[in-house]
Protein 1
Amino acid sequence: MGKFDQYNISLKGLKSGSQTYEFDLDNEYFKKIDSPEVQQGNVKVKLVVEKNASLYELSFDVNGTVQVPCDRCLDDMDLAIQHKEKLQVKFGENFSEEGDIVIVPELEGAINIAWFLYEFIVLNIPIKHVHAPGECNKTMVSKLKKYVTIEKDDEENDDIDFGDDDFEEEETTTDPRWDGLKNIFENNN
């Protein structure tokens, strides 16, 4: 028995109408997937498979939490996942994906959804994931404050929020010789 056999959905034996499946994706599932983005979590999946003439429509409802590292302090944080997705499947000679349609070999008559579930989860993790204000690791935040300098006219760093109001922006002063060199560089561009 393969490590993802429980995620095989046999399509050949389905009668017209719909069939419902439920899956609990826990830490063991994420360890088996062995991908760096998510290694722990607790996600519930409800899958409704509806058979039409020659097409199967798989409707996924994914809800739960996954653990990802905070971009600011690197401590693990729980991130809620809520997603609905539809996948259309039909039979063919070889496995392939053509746009929104997945083609499954007719001889096999089944589709394994383990990797699709993981993709749905990972693609719904926001690019920026940080703890709520005040929940980051205090030691790491204090080190960040020590080494990160925010200039008052720096628009790129306006969204940096260390989670407390005690951090004051420092106005940096530079050696005037560097300012002169910076002007030469800016005039040549």
Note: Residues 165-170 have pLDDT under 50 and may be disordered.
Protein 2
Amino acid sequence: MISTNQFRNGSHIDVEGTVFKILEFQHVKPGKGGAFVRTRLRRASDGAVIDRTFRAGEKFRPVRTEVRRMQFLYDDGSEAHFMDSETYEQLTFPEGALSDALRWMKESDEVDVLYIDDAPADLQLPSAIDLSVAETQPGVRGDTASGGGTKPAVLETGARINVPLFIDVGDVVRVDTRTGEYVSRA
């Protein structure tokens, strides 16, 4: 059993038969009354994020997690198809469960698939990924010298982000996959 004092960001717990990933937690010791733990949890089944408070010392069933390397094959509009890099076994995910991660993935990209209790549950993307700019407006002469400002751009995967004015079509940019923001040129 896992106690609330063993919580770690990114670990998984079973709360009343539902598996959650701990996004963040905070131990709170008020001046009056018992201590408690305030958490932000993501439900593994559908990705919904909830806030939940537990009493200090409350116990939960630990969840066995495993990461397997897979190759993203294609997205057919309703499902995303992956192939295990070692066994060549194919796997499909409903597109709705992965819509945020699919924004950053190209066909044949390698990703880590998280298995929870031997069932595929989620994708783990790197924190930053390099993608080329497919379309953007040209920077207006004089705007780039001031160094400020952004403009919208469409990346090769179809994702839309804001980039600095000096970025042109064909440039490769590094994007933070957690926030969807431009980081730097690659």
Note: The chain has three domains: 2-62, 65-124, 128-185.
Protein 3
Amino acid sequence: MLAKRIIPCLDVKEGRAVKGVNFENLRDAGDIAELSARYSDEGADEIVFLDITASHERRTTAREWVARVAGVTRVPFTVGGGIASERDVEALLRRGADKISINSAALDDPSLVDRLARAFGSQCVVVAIDARVERGTWRVYRQGGRVTTPRELFEWADEVTCRGAGEILFTSMDHDGMRRGFAVETLARLAGRLPVPVIASGGAGALEHFRDVFTAGKADAALAAGIFHFREMTIPALKEYLARENITIRL
């Protein structure tokens, strides 16, 4: 059985990590290089960096901080935000990123997923999906949760997987920052229908939430931000707990 992954996420704005609630009310969480080095030392399996204003500001990810992070990080890391072409991906990989994450650009042009998978391999392509429930339907959002789309979560996840996405990073906007647990039922449904790993995001607040997302939620990886940034939970303590709960984890 493959080990479950613990992934700290750094939402990046102007070179700093920030954290909010339901994608709003952002507060500073620290220097991204310092946080990256700490998580690498603590045993994170991977790290995700999302330039949360890049798409909204119609620019690509700020490449200078990617190189800075690569210099202090010893674990694989994914970069997302404003990526819209093969050239963008090539530049980020050249600066040290291991994977890229696309969201708004894939919604604008779904064929981008096909092209990136062909050029760099599916293992490099993570499609991030931000969604919330509206009138009983999981509606997909773009531009860092600012703009709604006509897309439905499960249909969109099916499509991008068929196009070559190697992983799906699903964030429940309703759960984000609330610390009441992940969207476990929805994650289990995604994991049950997709042939690729599903990364859970939005809602981590207690050790038990990670146990539940891996057992009932069937997620392959769990992503969290604020509880790690502000030292309310450490990665070693979390992994030790999960091991006691008989969940396969890298210690």
Note: The first strand starts at residue 5 and ends at 13.
Protein 4
Amino acid sequence: MVGAAATVWPLVTQMNPDAATIAAGAPIEVDLTPIAEGQDIKVFWRGKPIYISHRTKKQIDEAQQAPLSSLKDPEADSARVKAGHDQWLVVIGICTHLGCIPIAHEGNYDGFFCPCHGSQYDSSGRIRQGPAPANLEVPPYTFVSDTKIQIG
């Protein structure tokens, strides 16, 4: 029996994706349970930093009440989050100006601040100030359950 298992095991493990495949874009799952309200984490998918923010009621209200006419790249907050999960924002953490990595919970809008050239994004990842031409990109993701998402 042990011999059979030893023979089959390499066959089974070879079917798992290797690190290069995962880096090339295999979906990743993220458990949201440990992320406290008002906190964010950074994970990596396809070699890109992904910010997952557990937004506060105040952050959600400010994002939803921002007049679209005041935005450089107008997009409603509801278009940037999943319905029924307004408290979760998932964005690619790469500034749309020159590709720097913005800092979370910085700047004038309680969102993201890019220290390279001063771009400021709000708590919905929308560009509010500075040279960046567009909002932070939202990667493809789905809720697997109320406490877990799959990115990719």
Note: The radius of gyration is 19 Å.
